Amino acid sequence: MLHKAVQVRLYPTKEQETQLAQCFGCARWWWNYALNKSIETYKETGKGLTRAALNAFLPILKKAEDTIWLADCYSQVLQATTLNLTTAYKNFFEKRAGFPKFKSRHGKQSIQYPQNVKIVNGNVKLPGNTGEIKAKIHRPIEGKIKTVTVSKTPSGKYLASILTEVEGENPVISEGKIYGIDLGLKHFAVVTDGEKVVLYDNPKHLGKHEKNLKRKQKKLARKVKGSNSRNKYRKVVAKVYERVSNSRQDFLHKLSYKLVSDSLVVIVENLNVKGMVRNHKLAKSISDVGWGTFTNFLAYKLERRGGKLVEIDRWFPSSKLCSNCFYQIGEMPLDVREWTCPHCNTHHDRDGNAAQNIRAEGIRMIKAEGSAVSAVGGEVRPKLGRKSKLRHSPMSTEAPTSAVLGKLG
After folding, report:
1. Is residue 165 among the annotated active site residues?
2. Helix 350-370 vs helix 398-408: angle between axes, to the nearest 10 degrees?
């Protein structure tokens, strides 16, 4: 089975906006209540609350005088909120995410419908009292609808993310290029296929809107807190942020699609973005560039096409290693953009050389995974390759392994 997601714009009526606001409020309140209960229980007993234990509070709360309004919300929306909270706890304990946070009415609002959502006359029909909402469906909805997440952005737009299940399996491809990518700030991506190096400049999305954003934020700061004027102008600022986010997403989608469309394997570094943003001089630029999002886009697009994403270890010395003779120099400050190998006298562009080394190390890893480790070629010395990983278990099946190894020769 394949899973696909399509995000569509919703245009609810005033009455439907009120109903959605009530659902957002109920789901948000229940999330905060359940999170608080879980924290208190853990402090008292040393154990958390299971999904079933949390859901057992709902019938009681719906009958209580102070919280009888919870009964007006579609029941499965609240149960989906419980599932999301327990999943958030699981991700925290398995160190995949931070501790779950309490939700605010001022941020992005969302609710999830786990079933009974239908597409009727080009519109989205939600279960419960909300009914059929006008929608702009820009591409066909394929397969069986599994879950639909309805959200309201800080700028006031309503969106529906529709997850569907389609019969079939991901295709397997046997031909395509093998790209090595070095991600950076001056150039967003330096890409090599082993023959030529292509540079993709950093669009600096936030920088283009920074002057406008600063002006609007100053105006917002002068508004009286809690006033209608401040609440209205908050949407004006949110729209600027939304424009920045949309332009970033557009760039990352287009570039990832371009690279995936003719590739068999894409090789990147596993960057420690969380650690890198601690550098206050570069934090804003690193946050704006979107390396993590780009890597995720590459991963799911490659998986859908039948290709593979390989991530090499972040400590691999891609910049300090000569791609011609594999000589490794000592220190290399960030301001050194070109260097000459003292062993073979080859002159290197820092980023282009790094991309070639990333590609060679990825190929070495694929050969090591797909065949005996002793059969690894000499493109990169084995001692220099540190612990790394292959995204989405790329060598887990027979056919892709054969195809990739055939391509590598």
Report:
1. no
2. 130
**Start-to-end C-alpha separation, the chain:** 32
**Structure token digits, residue 310:** 């390989």
Told to judge if 72 belongs to the known catalytic residues of this protein, a careful annotator would answer no
3-state secondary structure the chain: CEEEEEEEEEECCHHHHHHHHHHHHHHHHHHHHHHHHHHHHHHHHCCCCCHHHHHCHHHHHHHCCCCHHHHHCCHHHHHHHHHHHHHHHHHHHCCCCCCCCCCCCCCCEEEEECCCCEEECCEEEECCCCEEEEEECCCCCCCEEEEEEEEECCCCCEEEEEEEEECCCCCCCCCCEEEEEEECCCEEEEEECCCCEEEEECCCHHHHHHHHHHHHHHHHHHCCCCCHHHHHHHHHHHHHHHHHHHHHHHHHHHHHHHHHCCEEEEEEECCCHHHHCCCCCCHHHHHHHCHHHHHHHHHHHHHHHCCEEEEECCCCCCCCECCCCCCECCCCCCCCCEEECCCCCCEEEHHHHHHHHHHHHHHHHHHHHHCCHHHCCCCCCHHHCCCCEECCCCCCCHHHHHHHHHHHC
**pLDDT recorded at residue 399:** 36
Residue-wise pLDDT tens digits, 119-178: 998 899 999 888 899 999 988 888 899 999 999 999 999 999 999 988 877 777 778 899
Among candidate residues 182, 193, 195, 398, the one labeled active-site is 182
Residue 390 confidence (pLDDT) above 60: no
Catalytic annotation present for 182? yes
Catalytic residue, from 142, 269, 311, 398: name it: 269
269 exposed, middle or buried (CB, 10 Å; 0-12, 13-18, 19+)? buried
CA distances from 222 to 77, 155, 228, 230 (A): 38, 19, 13, 9
Question: pLDDT tens across 307-343, in order?
Answer: 889 999 888 888 888 888 888 888 888 788 888 888 8
Q: Which of 201, 335, 351, 361 is catalytic?
A: 351
Mean pLDDT is lowest, of 100-114, 288-302, 315-329, 380-394, for 380-394
Q: Is the pTM of this model over 0.90?
A: no
Tell the residue number behind the tokens 């009888």, with chain if given: 68
Give Cα separations from 347 to 195, 229, 321, 323 (angstroms): 17, 60, 12, 10
